[in-house]
Amino acid sequence: MSSAILLGAPGSGKGTLAVKLKTRWDVAHISTGDMFREAVKAGSPMGLKASEFMKKGLLVPDDVTIGVVKERFSKADVKKGFILDGYPRTIPQAQALDRILEENELKLETVILLNIDEGLIVERITGRRTCPKCAAIYHIKNFKPKIENICDKCGSELFQRKDDTKEVVVERLEAYHKQTAPLVDFYRNKGLLQEIDASSSPEFMMQQVEALPL
Question: What CA–CA distance (Å, rounded) separates 187 from 193?
Fold first, then answer.
């Protein structure tokens, strides 16, 4: 069984790596966004609470987020392993996760920290362009469409999402340093933290993960 938390700043590549690891390890990929959407769709008590905040564009409080995570970990697919992407974000969330795993007789095997220069993060995120119709994602430097600013798949005009602007990225990085960065020492003190270089390709990140003593 493989079970891991992917820890890193916004734009470090957690989601991309998680998808690759899910396929390689054949385990559940659990992202914060997916958890909220599933809980809301199912109409669970915590999902209904979360939807109240999401509709208003507010951050979902820790107690509700923890409740949604608890519901998610009651499902059978996590028994063979899981990859957590975007959770925990705070020390209280990490402490709650410890309790949830213990209650479900599950063990966290490793926490993988994706190290990357913040200048590269800003370049990655601000260069993203999204298709409003089919949600395909491009990049002005690293993954250009065949015709400038036009989606290869459906021909729609690409746009930059509001949360991909430099101002928002800087705010997200500040929030990460304040709320999430303390988790590095939290998991290092538990002897669970391992680090990889996230500044290169997803393939290189996978090679580094496969070389870790998991």
Answer: 5
